[in-house]
Design a protein that fits this description.
about 260 residues, alpha/beta, six-stranded mixed beta sheet, four-stranded antiparallel beta sheet
C-alpha cells in the first residue's frame, strides 16, 4: 500500500548573475527536476547519490520545510501542502547526520524524549507517557540510567540513538534518515543498522534512507533510487550491478564496491 507519493516534484532556487557595468540578471538553479517516487507502508527506500545531487533538498521538500516549485508530495493521497506542520511532523520524522546539533546540551535525555511525547499526546495520562518513554529507550538499546545523562556525557553513537528515540517518540509512520550514520565508525554503523531493522518490524515504520554509503543501504533497504544532478535516473531492487541500466548508477556502485 502506497504511503508516500512524490509526483513530478521540481525545486528551483533563485540567484543573481553578476554582469559587467554593474548590471545584474536574475536566474534560477534547479536542485530537483521532476522527481517521481513512491514509498510503500513498511518499506525501506534508499536514496543514493554524490554530494550536491539533491538528496537533502528532497528530504526538506518531503517534510514541507521547502515548498516544491512544481509537483506534489502526497501522503495517503492527500497533499502535504494542505496539512498542518504539527500533523506532518507527527507522521514523518527526520534524523540528521550531526546528532550534536539536534540535542540541546543543557537538557537531560529524559527531558529531550519527554518533550515530543507531551506535545503530541497531551490527552494521554502520565502512566502511558512513562511507558512510551521506557519503550523507545529500549528500542534504541540504551539502559534506563541514560535518562539522567546530558548529551555531552554520551558518545557519538549514543547521541544518534537518542535522536532516533526522539523521532520514535511520536509514533511516526515514516522516518527520513539524512546521512544519519555517516559520521559513525563502522562497528557503530552496523549496530545501528541492525537496530533499525528490528525497530521497523516492531513499530511498522517506513524508512527513507538518504546516504552515499552503499553498504548501509544494501543491508537496510528494499529498493534504491539513484539521484544525479537533481534527477532520479534509476530505481531498482536487484543488487546485481550488471543489471543496472544507467551509466552513472553503474559507475557509482562499482566505485562503492557493492
Amino acid at each position: 500500500m502506497t504511503l508516500l507519493n512524490i509526483q513530478d516534484v521540481t525545486k528551483r532556487y533563485p540567484f543573481r548573475l553578476r554582469r559587467r557595468k554593474g548590471l545584474n540578471q536574475s536566474s534560477t538553479i534547479k536542485a530537483l527536476h521532476e522527481i517521481n517516487l513512491t514509498l510503500n507502508r513498511g518499506e525501506s527506500l534508499g536514496i543514493v547519490g554524490e554530494s550536491g545531487s539533491g538528496k537533502s533538498t528532497l528530504a526538506k521538500v518531503i517534510m514541507n520545510i521547502e515548498r516544491p516549485s512544481s509537483g506534489k508530495v502526497l501522503m495517503d493521497g492527500k497533499s502535504m501542502s494542505e496539512m498542518k506542520d504539527l500533523t506532518i511532523y507527527k507522521r514523518i520524522q527526520l534524523v540528521l547526520q550531526d546528532s550534536s546539533t539536534s540535542l540541546y546540551p543543557r537538557l537531560k535525555v529524559r527531558d529531550i524524549l519527554e518533550e515530543p511525547i507531551h506535545n503530541y499526546f497531551p490527552e494521554k495520562d502520565q502512566a502511558w507517557k512513562e511507558e512510551r518513554l521506557v519503550k523507545i529507550l529500549k528500542l534504541v538499546n540504551l539502559p534506563l540510567c541514560y535518562l539522567s545523562r546530558l548529551p555531552g556525557q554520551l558518545s557519538g553513537g549514543q547521541k544518534q540513538r537518542v535522536c532516533i528515540a526522539k523521532a520514535l517518540a511520536v509514533q511516526p509512520e515514516i522516518i527520513i534518515f539524512d546521512e544519519s550514520i555517516a559520521s559513525l565508525d563502522q562497528s557503530a554503523q552496523i549496530e545501528i543498522i541492525n537496530m533499525l531493522k528490528h525497530i521497523k518490524n516492531i513499530e511498522n515504520i517506513s524508512y527513507l534512507f538518504i546516504t552515499h554509503d552503499l553498504l548501509s543501504i544494501r543491508q537496510l533497504c528494499d529498493q534504491v533510487s539513484v539521484i544525479y544532478q537533481g534527477e532520479i535516473v534509476e530505481t531498482f531492487s536487484n543488487w546485481d550491478i550488471q543489471e543496472l541500466k544507467h551509466p552513472y548508477s553503474r559507475s557509482l556502485f562499482r566505485a562503492g564496491a557493492v
